[in-house]
């Protein structure tokens, strides 16, 4: 629980700082759509889509949805997220998000921190840390951190 509170406080501070110098009215956001292989199994995919709105030099607010396909290891998951991203340069960005996901009749909440490094125009490295808080079907509390490191290629 203290991880979620820490993430909320950090996002509130970042939003307050970003709101002090709002962008000009002609600044527009952008839609995004991405897919990647899930870390749970080879034949499971996660699709993310949403809207990113720049609020201050390098800072963007993000609202999105996620869906993970079903596999023999896990059922389909659907969820919503909101967060903030910061672009250090055109090649390096970090972000954090609060998310909820629904898996059958269970809803889990969590925090995610991620980073992306663009090596070339077509090759990226990414790392993420997710911390889930929720209950499983036996009503045991889940506090599982999940780490992911990956390489992505653009066609």
Explain this structure to me?
The chain has 1 helix and 9 strands; from the N terminus they run αβββββββββ. By secondary structure, the chain is mainly beta. It has one domain: Beta Barrel (Porin). Strands 1, 2, 3, 4, 5, 6, 7, 8 and 9 form a 9-stranded antiparallel beta sheet that branches.
Layout of helices and strands:
Blueprint: H1 2-20, E1 30-37, E2 45-56, E3 59-68, E4 77-87, E5 92-103, E6 106-118, E7 123-135, E8 141-142, E9 145-153
Antiparallel strand pairs: 1-2, 2-3, 3-4, 4-5, 5-6, 6-7, 7-8, 7-9
The biggest sheet amounts to: 9 strands, antiparallel
CATH class, named Mainly Beta
**Model regions low in confidence, pLDDT < 50 over at least 5 residues:** none
SS elements, strand count: 9
Helical percentage: 10-25%
Q: Secondary-structure element order, as H and E?
A: HEEEEEEEEE
Mean pLDDT: 76
Q: Please state the second-level CATH architecture.
A: Beta Barrel
**How many angstroms does the end-to-end distance come to?**
40 Å
**Number of helical segments with 4 or more residues:** 1
Tell me, what's the shape? globular
Q: Per CATH, what is the topology? A: Porin
Q: How many whole angstroms does the radius of gyration measure?
A: 16 Å
Question: Concise description?
Answer:
The protein has 155 residues and is mostly beta strands.
Protein traits:
155 residues, mainly beta, Porin, 1 helix, globular
């Amino acid at each position: 629980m203290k991880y979620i509170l820490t993430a909320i406080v950090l996002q509130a501070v970042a939003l307050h700082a970003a709101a002090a110098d709002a962008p000009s009215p002609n600044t527009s956001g952008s839609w995004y759509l991405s897919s990647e292989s899930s870390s749970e199994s080879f034949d499971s995919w996660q699709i993310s889509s949403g809207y990113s709105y720049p609020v201050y030099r390098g800072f963007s607010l993000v609202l999105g949805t996620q869906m993970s396909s079903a596999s023999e290891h896990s059922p389909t998951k659907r969820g919503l997220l909101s967060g903030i991203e910061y672009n250090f340069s055109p090649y390096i960005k970090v972000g954090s998000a609060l998310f909820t996901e629904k898996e059958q009749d269970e809803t889990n909440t969590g925090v995610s921190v991620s980073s992306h490094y663009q090596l070339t125009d077509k090759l990226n490295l990414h790392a993420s840390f997710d911390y889930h808080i929720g209950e499983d079907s036996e009503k045991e509390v889940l506090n599982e951190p999940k780490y992911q490191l990956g390489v992505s290629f653009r066609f």
